[in-house]
Design goal:
The complex is a heterodimer.
Chain A lengths: L2 E2 L1 H7 L6 E3 L9 E2 L4 H7 L5 E6 L18 H10 L7 E5 L9 H15 L7 E4 L2 H4 L5 H7 L4 E5 L2 E5 L12 H12 L6 E5 L18 H8 L4 E6 L6 E5 L2 E5 L31 E8 L4 E9 L3
Parallel strand pairs in A: 4-5, 5-6, 8-9, 9-10, 10-12
Antiparallel strand pairs in A: 1-3, 2-14, 4-13, 7-8, 11-12, 13-14
Helix pairs in contact in A: 7-8
Chain B lengths: L1 H29 L4 E8 L2 E3 L2 E5 L4 E7 L4 E5 L4 E5 L4 E6 L5 E6 L12 E7 L1
Classes of the chains: A alpha/beta, B alpha/beta.
């Protein structure tokens, strides 16, 4: 009998909806075909969970040469998540929910339309955060009206999540006040606490010439450094990137509107044009399987397809 | 005698002050003059957006905004400043390397922000 792993199970169990898993799970549960859900449940370690990260949906963007399905991609992603056989514990959106506009009313309308679309998600718990496109022009005023606080924490099982705002100040800074808030929060955590930071811009200098940095990100990293188990998930750069600052891992996510070139690979940053031979190439979402006991986060990149 | 000594000390002090002033003056006159370049930031553009400089020659950019708050950042030479409407912002530096370097607005300023860049070319 063919053995399949958890991800394989989800795929076979009717993921459909135009999404495929880009890789298989290395940690197999040894499921014996589709009916063995009970075995799987037994094998699952207590407190393990998984969540889905979606990023840079840029609702309101228009550019047929970059994404001729600008109005459909987010909806496909929602359908794809809803089609997951096992629903995630929660979903996070790591910023740039909407594409920037100088028109305040259009900004609000885009946020409202975005909320309507993601309101179709079956998962009841969704954590939002802002990107500079959402919040930099009005210091997060419209964003807060629509989605709530710019920085906050939440706990899930044994993991402490910290949502950091490095966008509402148009100068790409976290700022002293938020930094003090972060330090006060970290004081409440044990040195070996499982901590996940969710933010929009990279906290390290990935490529500052392209605004791929947080001006006072080093101070944030310094504050996090005494904690042994910290992982950062972010967006902004519209592609996967994995980087270590000491023991802290930083993982960026793909966009759901347009991909961007690798850092510094071209003279000028610009969206990568749509490839008609490979639609949705470079776009995607990801699932993150958390194993708090091992302080381990297994990332699976999921592609969007036309389906 | 005491009066003569006080006079001597005063004289020495005065002479050394004059001498150091002269040294500073000579040093200052030996420095090449700063080139002043005016830049305007407006409608998501810098004007001029291409500037040619000579290596080793000090320069000051005087930057003003024609609309809203911007930022000016020329990372290759470690200079940046906020650019506020109604004020002139200055950055000073002496190019110490040749090549083509990008400057950009680093304050998210609106729909065209990401296009708001320019180039400094430094020649020998």
């Amino acid at each position: 009998m063919k053995k399949i792993d958890r991800r394989g199970f989800i795929k076979l169990a009717g993921l459909g909806g135009g999404i495929v898993f880009a890789s298989s799970l290395s940690r197999g549960f040894g499921l014996n075909a589709l009916g063995s859900l009970v075995d799987y449940a037994n094998a699952k370690v207590e407190n393990d969970f998984y969540f889905v990260q979606l990023s840079d949906t840029h609702w309101g963007f228009a550019g047929p040469k970059v994404n001729p399905d600008a109005e459909g991609t987010l909806k496909k992603a929602v359908q794809a998540v809803n089609s997951l056989a096992e629903q995630p514990d929660f979903i996070v959106f790591t910023g740039d929910l909407t594409h920037t506009t100088d028109d305040v009313q259009v900004r609000k309308d885009r946020m409202s339309q975005f909320k309507d679309i993601v309101g179709e998600l079956k998962v009841p718990t969704v954590h939002f955060m802002a990107g500079e496109h959402d919040a930099s022009l009005d210091r997060g005023e419209a964003y807060q009206e629509a989605f709530g606080k710019l920085n906050y924490t939440f706990d899930h099982k044994s993991v402490h999540f910290i949502v950091l705002d490095n966008v509402s100040d148009p100068g790409a800074i976290v700022g002293e006040s938020q930094l003090n808030w972060l330090k006060a929060d970290l004081k409440q955590q044990k040195a070996d606490a499982r901590i996940v930071v969710l933010t929009h811009r990279p906290l390290f200098d990935l490529y500052p010439d392209w605004d791929w940095a947080t001006r006072d990100g080093a101070a944030v990293i310094d504050a996090l450094m005494p904690h042994k188990n910290v992982t950062v998930f972010y967006g902004h750069i519209h592609q996967e990137n994995h980087h270590m600052t000491g023991h802290i891992a930083h993982h960026s996510a793909k966009s759901l509107m347009f991909p961007l070139p690798a850092p510094g690979s071209v003279p000028k940053k610009a969206p990568i044009p749509w490839d008609a031979t490979a639609p949705y190439k470079g776009l995607g979402l990801r699932s993150i399987e958390a194993e708090p006991k091992q302080a381990k986060y297994e990332i699976k990149e999921l592609n969007v397809t036309g389906g | 005698m005491r009066r003569k000594k006080r006079f001597l000390i005063t004289g020495v002090l005065l002479a050394s002050t004059l001498l150091s002033g002269l040294v500073i003056y000579i040093k200052a006159s030996a420095l090449p003059a700063e080139t002043v370049i005016h830049i305007t930031a407006k409608n998501f553009e810098f004007s001029p957006d291409s500037i040619t400089l000579k290596k080793g020659e000090p320069v000051v950019f005087e930057i003003s905004s024609g609309d809203r708050k911007h930022g000016f950042n020329l990372r290759a030479f470690g200079v940046r400043n906020d650019v506020l409407p109604g004020k002139v912002s200055r950055v000073r530096f002496t190019p110490d390397k040749t090549g083509k370097f990008t400057f950009s607005c680093d304050v998210f300023c609106g729909e065209g922000h990401e296009e708001m860049t320019g180039t400094v070319v430094v020649t020998e």
